[in-house]
Specification:
By secondary structure, the chain is α+β, with helices and mostly antiparallel strands. 13% of the residues lie in helices and 33% in strands. The protein has an eight-stranded mixed β-sheet with strand order 36-37-39-38-40-41-42-43, sandwiched between helices. Strands 13, 14, 15, 18 and 19 form a five-stranded antiparallel β-sheet that branches. A four-stranded antiparallel β-sheet has the order 1-2-3-4, with no helix packed on it. Strand 40, helix 7 (603-614) and strand 41 (621-625) form a beta-alpha-beta unit. Residues 536-731 form the Peptidase S9 prolyl oligopeptidase catalytic domain. It comes from Congregibacter variabilis. Pfam families: DPPIV_N, Peptidase_S9. Residues 128-450 form the Dipeptidylpeptidase IV N-terminal domain.
Length: 733
């Protein structure tokens, strides 16, 4: 938050506040705003996508040297897409680019890993594996790993590097500089296109469709635990490719709610013999492997959860590969699997993230105990947002939304302290990476007006240093939208709702401003820079809009009940939360609630289109991008929200088509034809029905765009142009 607003303490997570009180504070802040800034050149849509980027290149998460003296990350200080490796001292005061003359003809750095001596770094540049000496910048090409190599992982004994390619696990021997596949299970995917969320091999060592582990070395470097995924039993679904010489069916493996999911299991590979032994996990097409890790004593920890999110298990696997259930918890009302786990350095205790109480917290259990009673470690008033990271002699680092839901800060629990201590001092969104000795934390930080940067802070004091300066100089010369955080009561129950408002820095309280809700989604009332969406918000504010985002039920940061109200109720009471927000905004004189629009993508697109259809007249215009409009075509992983047709058939009657006759506002539908998450077919079917109903609406599609259409620059520029023009047409005077 800007300093002038931070001192006002606008956002409160507890206690009701009357509309009159909030409105009075709201207006007092407006009237005390700074004088108008000098005239600046208008921001254009093309400025959002220019190269070099006005907003800079986001630095990668930092990785520490084993000796804790330095950390490295990939970045481009000129705002260009090509990435080089950069090295910073532990305190962040020294920074230099790691390069070598030999790199002139090769691609930018894709991945890297520190060697155990803390002097050499292994780098994957294009398909080439290099070793760079950080003292003299001498580089040595070690070998060609081939197309598609990824996920570098150095063995603890520093002799071998593992990597993934073609669905298999490979080993590169650093003594002989040669590589070979250690598994033979990879089967290529069906799709002829190398795009889309579901474009994965038929069988592979790798993550699930929606994430998960890949592999991890044992402490003695003799065994590798691997995540094996088999999709051959899933249904084949065509996603036609209209850009090929002839229309191609382009089949992929994709399930629908009620289908068996991909099979996910865990195997152990003897590195010397290359033998793979699968562990006897049950219901592998209905349960996901959240993660796994080795203890210092060589015992494997498995973290498993059901796709419905109702069940959670922790298992250990001993040297004889015997599986033991350590802990199990079931709750029928759970909707998310925000889980993680890690061994304590003592090799006996397990630290895990779970939702046993009102907030997500970190808990500890003894893996050897006969009965388990998890002990809460973190603050019960805040939600833990990250996996625990162990450093030093048992220090536990994690990220939590404290002091309020809009913030994300790094905390540490030291062995000698009973309570967690905040490490990161800056208001906003911070993701932390502690040094191995726990003396420093390098963290990536952003806020409402500042794109992501790397900072370093001492864990024993207040020594903070900014490491990167990413945006171009012209960025700091502009005056960006100012943010406000507001709380007000729900109109349908006793919950307190929370909103984030972006306004022109030179707002005139005597004027009436059109209002845009969006992008809509859960967990948007956050003090952070949100990539291209945030850039578009800034453009819209400059054009004269006020931007509103609200955390509907289902969002994290307000307790378990509020989060789980979303279960089997998409486009239900979450829309009522939008209605409550509109009612509050009607009390703010300079917000023109007769000229309001709403937009979002994915679930945000669902909210936008269902709101227009179920609450006609609430908004004058809306843009629904990649909107899920038919639950029958949700993914198998969406059962955590809607469950299955055989258990909750009423949820699957909630199709947008039921409300098509209600459309009376100005709707623009945006969809990529290669969207494998929300099939284009579903939107096309709804559009056909709207046409039959005689409704006037607009449709912008992109033939090669996926569900992540905003990440593909040419489609993003085109479709955001349609979005801005749509709102200008119907909401501007």
């Amino acid at each position: 938050m800007p300093t002038t607003l931070r001192s006002q303490a606008i956002l409160k997570n507890s206690g009701l506040r009357s509309v009159a009180t909030v409105c009075g504070l709201f207006l007092s802040l407006v009237l005390s705003a700074a004088p108008r800034a000098t005239e600046q050149a208008p921001l254009h849509l093309d400025d959002l996508f220019a190269s070099p980027s006005l907003f800079g290149t986001v630095p990668s998460p930092p990785k520490w040297a084993p000796d804790s003296q330095r950390f490295a990350f990939t970045w481009n200080d000129k705002g260009l897409p090509d990435r080089e490796l950069w090295l910073a001292s532990a305190d962040g005061k020294e920074l230099r680019r790691l390069s070598s003359p030999q790199f002139a003809l090769y691609s930018s750095t894709r991945e890297f890993a520190w060697r155990s001596n803390s002097k050499n770094i292994l780098m994957l540049r294009g398909n080439e594996l290099w070793q760079l000496d950080i003292d003299d910048s001498k580089a040595r090409r070690l070998g060609d790993l081939g197309p598609g190599a990824s996920n570098l992982g150095l063995a603890p004994d520093d002799q071998k590097v593992a990597f993934l390619k073609d669905g298999n696990l490979w080993i590169f021997d650093l003594q002989t500089n040669s590589s070979s596949a250690i598994t033979d299970i990879g089967i290529p995917g069906l799709s002829a296109l190398s795009i889309g969320r579901y474009n994965r091999p038929e069988r592979e060592i790798g993550p699930g469709i929606w994430g998960g582990p890949t592999y991890v070395w044992s402490p003695d470097s003799r065994t590798i635990a691997v995540h094996l995924v088999d999709r051959r039993q899933m249904r084949k679904v065509p996603f036609p490719d209209y850009l090929s010489s002839e229309t191609a069916p382009n089949e992929i493996r994709r399930g629908y709610p009620g289908d068996a999911n991909e099979s996910r299991t865990v195997g152990l590979i003897d590195v010397a013999e290359g033998k793979l032994q699968l562990l006897p996990l049950q219901n592998t097409s209905a349960n996901q492997v959240v993660g796994f890790s080795w203890s210092s004593k060589g015992v494997l920890l498995l973290d498993v959860a059901s796709d419905t999110a109702e069940d959670r298990w922790l298992y250990t696997v001993d040297a004889q590969q015997r599986l033991k259930e350590v802990w199990h918890k079931q709750r029928k009302s759970r909707i998310y699997t925000s889980f993680a786990s890690q061994w304590h350095p003592n090799g006996e205790d397990i630290i895990f993230l779970s939702d046993l109480e009102d907030r997500y917290g970190l808990y500890m259990i003894d893996a050897l105990a006969e009965t388990q009673s998890p002990r809460l470690l973190s603050n019960p008033e805040a939600d833990v947002l990250s996996a625990p990271i162990m450093a030093g002699a048992g220090s536990i680092f994690y990220t939590a939304n404290a002091p309020n839901a809009s913030e994300s800060q790094v905390f540490v629990i030291r062995p000698s302290q009973a309570t967690a201590q905040r490490v990161t001092p800056l208001s906003g969104h911070s993701s932390g990476y502690p040094s191995p000795d726990a003396s420093h934390v390098a963290f990536v930080h952003s806020n409402d007006t500042q794109p992501a940067e790397i900072y370093s802070v001492s864990t024993m004091g207040t020594k903070l240093h900014r490491v990167t300066h990413s945006p171009l100089e012209a960025f700091s010369e502009r005056e960006w939208a100012r943010s406000r955080y507001l709380s007000f009561p729900s109109g349908i129950d006793d919950y307190q709702l929370h909103a984030r408002i972006l306004e022109p820095a030179t707002l005139d309280p005597e004027k009436k401003y059109p209002v845009l809700f969006g992008p809509m989604y859960s967990n948007t009332v956050r003090n952070r820079w949100g990539g291209v969406y945030n850039r578009v918000q800034q453009l819209l504010v400059q054009k004269g809009y006020i931007i509103v985002q609200v955390d509907m039920r289902g969002s994290t940061g307000y307790g378990r009940d509020f989060r789980e109200e979303f279960l089997v109720d998409f486009a239900g009471d979450d829309i009522e939360d939008i209605v409550s927000t509109v009612e509050y905004l009607k009390t703010v004189p300079y917000m023109d609630t007769e000229r309001m629009g709403i937009w979002g993508s994915s679930y945000g697109g669902t909210l936008s289109i269902y709101t227009l259809l179920k609450k006609p007249g609430l908004f004058r215009a809306g843009v629904a991008a990649a909107a899920a409009v038919d639950p029958h075509f949700f993914g198998t992983d969406d059962v955590a929200i809607v469950r299955r047709p055989d258990t909750h058939p009423e949820v699957f009657l909630n199709m947008a088509a039921r409300y098509a006759a209600n459309l009376e506002d100005h709707l623009l539908i945006i969809h990529g034809m290669q969207d494998q998450v929300v099939p284009f077919k579903t939107t096309a079917t709804l559009a056909d029905l709207l046409i039959k109903e005689g409704k006037d609406f607009d449709f912008a599609f992109a033939p090669g765009a996926t569900h992540s259409w905003s990440r593909e620059t040419h489609y993003s520029r085109y479709l955001f142009g349609k979005l801005v023009a749509h709102f200008d047409r119907y909401l501007m005077p």
